[in-house]
Amino acid sequence: MKRFAYLVCFGMFFVVLNGAVVTKTGSGEGCGTDWPLCNGEFIPAYTIESMIEYSHRLVSGIEGLLVIAIFVWVIRQLKKKDAVFYASLTLIFTVIQALMGALAVMYVQVPAIMALHFGFSIIAFASSFLLSLAIRRYANDPEATEVVGGTPVNDTFRYGVWFTLLYTYIVIYVGAFVRHTDSGGGCLGWPLCNGEIIPELTGGTLIAFLHRVAAALLVLVVAAMSHFAYHSHKDNREIQLCGIWALILTVMQVLSGALVVFTVTNKNWFLFTGLLHTVLICLLFSVLCHLSIRVWQLRTKRQ
């Protein structure tokens, strides 16, 4: 079960990356408006766009079957509340993102809805990540309890972690909105936008600039949370490490965003840097989700 959970988590990670490739290469219409068929065929005629889109559907379909399998396995055999919760979340958001993907193919969707599609994909991955951690813990220690022990955390830090997670998701959504509105070229250069501290705030420039401001504020928010995670929880190494990794991944995320800007005119490098940007945000959001669960568990333990 542990190895299968790892497979599900890796598969979900690949689905998110594959979806990013579809968006970055503009292959969303590679199969026309047909679903689940591609241009009316089970195996479509070869074009780059149709193969990219069709491979995303194929990978997502296989991953959907794996998610159903791990959900049934956890429900019937493991029966641990936290594992069941994570498996349920993974299944729910896998279904939601699949339905949204199908609707995006058959009907024209506004960028605001498509940005939600990416956001739900991130939640599905984070849920599969948490599920794999939970199953790993039970596999290594069959007698493990559902709530992991540790030193209780105070309310202020707990709410701070939850705020950080929520704000990170908002930044992710804004970033996805930039991508789906093709506003990435609205701010050329970095860290200045079009050579100005505050550019003319219209069209794609406004959207891209708002994302930059939100990302800059995210660094400050995560830095503050990480400071308290490290200095106020010296007796809880797990909390400290989560704070450290959150800060490292946030800084790397911002730098990868700069690389996206610098490579916007180079198609091959732009795809690579865009995928790197996606990888880092997946990892950051998953770490923050894990930390949010841990501070909740420690609160439950104290009460």
TrEMBL record:
Its main location: membrane. The chain crosses the membrane at residues 58-76, 83-108, 114-135, 156-176, 209-230, 242-263, 269-293. Pathway: Porphyrin-containing compound metabolism. This is Heme A synthase. It is found in: Membrane. The keyword Thylakoid does not apply. Keywords: Cell membrane, Disulfide bond, Heme biosynthesis, Iron, Membrane, Metal-binding, Oxidoreductase, Signal, Transmembrane, Transmembrane helix. Residues 1-20 form the signal peptide. The keyword Ribosomal protein does not apply. It is a multi-pass membrane protein. Pfam families: COX15-CtaA.
